[in-house]
Known about the structure:
Rossmann fold; membrane; disordered N terminus; transmembrane helix; undecaprenyl-phosphate glucose phosphotransferase activity
Amino acid sequence: MNKYRHYYSFNRVLLLILDVTLIAFAFKLSNLIRYGNFELDHQYNIFFVLFALVWWIVSGFSNFVVRIDGFLPIDRRLSNLLNVFVMHALILASCIVVFNLEQLSRLLLLYTYLSTALLIGFSRLIMFQVNRYFTNSDMAHTRYVIVGSGQAAATLQQTLSNNDEIGTKFMGFFDDEADMSSPYASQVRGGMEELKDYCLQHSIDEIYYTKPLTDEGQIDELTEFANDNFIYLRLVPDFSAIVKKDVNVYFYHNIPMLSVRNEPLELASNRVVKRIFDVVFSLAVILLIFPILVPIIALLIKLESKGPIFFKQLRPGKKNRLFVCYKFRTMRVNNNTELQATKNDPRITRFGAFMRKTSLDELPQFFNVLLGDMSVVGPRPNLVSQLDHYSKVISKYKMRHFVTPGITGYAQVSGYRGETKEVHLMEKRVEYDVMYMANWSLMMDMKIIFLTVWNMIKGEKNAY
């Protein structure tokens, strides 16, 4: 709801300021435990700035860290906070190497992380309880009524009640044509004639109008009444007859528009964030890993079989545009490049099988990322022949091409990798690809990358 936008912005800033304050206290406390005084040396002061900056960046991309409302259960809240600390630690460890801060005391770092985790975790619990007390108090409630008593009204009431974020109190339905046999009949306070008196007697703050928007006279009358009595009027049109799933609502100037697909990457700001991350991450891999691994991999490929080191193949990308996808060659040179690899495929070399198992053959695709043809995380680019086939038999297959394909993806870390002998296996991949598109966040990308690295270490049974 728009009236809460500034509340959440203020809440985000307040919590980040509190976090930095607690981090500063954790640094002082850790230094006292380790060295017996509160004075930090110059290097540790620099590390504090770095520590706080990384925390600000990581938590800024995570709504569950900068919210203290009751939207998430406590166990999910603590689990998410732990995930953010893990991501923060991974990024900070990389920064320590890049900025040459290895002289920092390991014991001091341990004390700092433990005290920071305890202080921030404990502060969230306290603020969560305070927020819960505040939202349950009468003074915090925003009193609202709903005009209408049909399915749209009932769904709205359940949604507002279940997601009681900063304190709302439902006062009843008002409808001249209420179905008194419905489960909500006892909550109908009257018809439209009784609405105005009820609002004034019970200090109603908001009116939600869920009836069809065809009665212009009634809406104008309610608008005038609400304006005269400092009550917010919300029009909640019922699109359930034409839209059977969640939608995004946005405005182009003053024209409301519905997007029937929930896709965070529709927003230009999210695409910019993802692109910046892709470029930085790819450059880090190319500069730090390639000089070590590429010569070794190239030598082993050449020793085992004749042919080029790299394998190039056209793959369909965003909006089905073809691009040249790069990989390390894992097969003996053959003319069946559009044929998907199978278990015990005779075309695959021994070292090629190892690279496929550990995903090392995908490393050259970081150049595809820099070129803009791919992303680090996204739906895996299939063969052109697969695009032609599956787009005809799987209804949502083409949807995965709304976004840039990735080196790794949500489907791959969820166990759907390798040969797709049956249509249902590809359907599951598409299902996870669409889920990724609908739930994208930078934290989700980082989680998928972490799981990909973990799978590389332990090996993938379906990769061949």
